[in-house]
Amino acid sequence: MINRHITTTLLRLAKSFPILGVTGPRQSGKTTLVKKLFGDKPYVSLEDPDQRAFALEDPKGFLKRFEGGAVFDEAQRWPDLFSYLQGMVDEDRQAGRFIVTGSQQFSLLAGITQSLAGRIGMSRLLPLQWSEVKDLSKIRIDLDQQILRGGYPAIYTTHQSHNGNLEASHDWFASYITTYIERDVRQLINVQDIGLFQRFIRLCAARTGQLLNIEALANETGISASRARAWLSVLETSDLVYLLMPYHRNFGKRLVKSPKLYFVDTGLAAWLLGIRSTEMLNIHPMRGALFETFIVIEHLKERYNQGLAPDIYFWRDSNGLEADLVYETIEVLEGQSVSKLQTIEIKSGTTVTSDYVKAGKKSGRFAGDEAAQLKLIYGGDDSFERSGIYFTSWRDLLS
């Protein structure tokens, strides 16, 4: 059983709300985790046609079996569930009574917003963090191998994948994309040309770590910009991609306003790009973007696992100042708490050079006196301070 860092957050929320909601992409480990943590409750999968038919035909009879509580998996498959749960928990607000999971953010949150506001504690489980993989692995994993494997738990449950064999993950990713399109995409939108949608996904993978230009993406796919926006919304809803927004404070400069697109899992992105080996990745022009994706999404996972809002951004202006990651932080100076901006530069190389030092210093320049200690995360194995910059190895990321 993989130790998931979100466990503390889930248990805390289950002590405060009558309903706990766990969302996240398919195969991120939601079902396994809630079964482990709440194994004393009946488990119901609403993907099961028989269970769903019972619920649709006789909702009150269906729920009467679970008055003491239950785990409802893939709850978005029965939208009326949320209205019925509202009435049940209003009569008995016992904490942690019901657990609902879902892999479609839009469908699940729409039902929750309408019926369960103030009654449900929400959480989001993404694929494994690097720190979780480190705890699990019995071998030393190199950076390129980790980028190619990604974080989906199923990749680590086979003996071959667990010991560094990447072939098993290739088959898994192929099956994942097929299943994702058949289950989620067809439920959310009417896609006539599946091949065209697959092309769209691959083109998104080729843009991970880049500013989003929806018109260019649409033109290259061969669809309208409005359809590209709708399709991108589906990928966001399914937690396949994440849009990192530019930092919103105005420092008196002309800012880039477009978000940056990131795939939530580097293994899936690399597979979509046709990268099948560490040797291929090592010389691939997308290696730097995939490394940046890995680092940004690790910060996103850390926030979600702690039950926090993401609140991570990037910075870029017309004068060439940029920081790959920006977030607000608190530093204690002379006994007083002071609000600061943490800026992070990301470089995939394994050796710290003078150019890295210059890039690290430049990344925090826009924040002026508000900048926290400058930080650069890179692809090497050692963490140390140099020239006022803390160089953090990817191996020590958020540990």
What is the structure about, briefly put?
The chain contains 17 helices and 14 strands. The protein is of the alpha/beta class and 399 residues long. The protein folds into three domains: 118 residues, Rossmann fold; 162 residues, Orthogonal Bundle (Arc Repressor Mutant, subunit A), CATH 1.10.10; 76 residues, no CATH class.
Folded structure, characterized:
The protein has 399 residues and is an alpha/beta fold. It folds into three domains: 7-124, P-loop containing nucleotide triphosphate hydrolases (Rossmann fold, 3-Layer(aba) Sandwich), CATH 3.40.50.300; 130-291, Orthogonal Bundle (Arc Repressor Mutant, subunit A), CATH 1.10.10; 321-396, no CATH class. The chain has 17 helices and 14 strands. The chain has a six-stranded mixed β-sheet with strand order 9-10-11-12-14-13, sandwiched between helices. A five-stranded parallel β-sheet has the order 2-3-4-1-5, with helices on both faces. Strand 11 (336-347), helix 17 and strand 12 (374-378) form a beta-alpha-beta unit. Helix 12 packs across helix 13 (225-237).
- Decide which structural class fits the backbone: alpha/beta
How would you characterize the largest beta sheet?
6 strands, mixed
CATH superfamily of the largest domain: Winged helix-like DNA-binding domain superfamily/Winged helix DNA-binding domain
CATH architecture identity of the largest domain: Orthogonal Bundle
- Tell me the Rg in angstroms: 22 Å
Number of helices: 17
- Distance linking N and C termini: 21 Å
Number of domains: 3
The count of strands amounts to: 14
CATH topology of the largest domain: Arc Repressor Mutant, subunit A
> Uncertain segments of ≥5 residues (pLDDT<50)?
none
Residue fraction in strands: 15-25%
Overall mean pLDDT score? 91
CATH class category of the largest domain: Mainly Alpha
Global morphology: globular
* Strand arrangement across the biggest beta sheet: 9-10-11-12-14-13
Percent of residues in helices: 40-55%
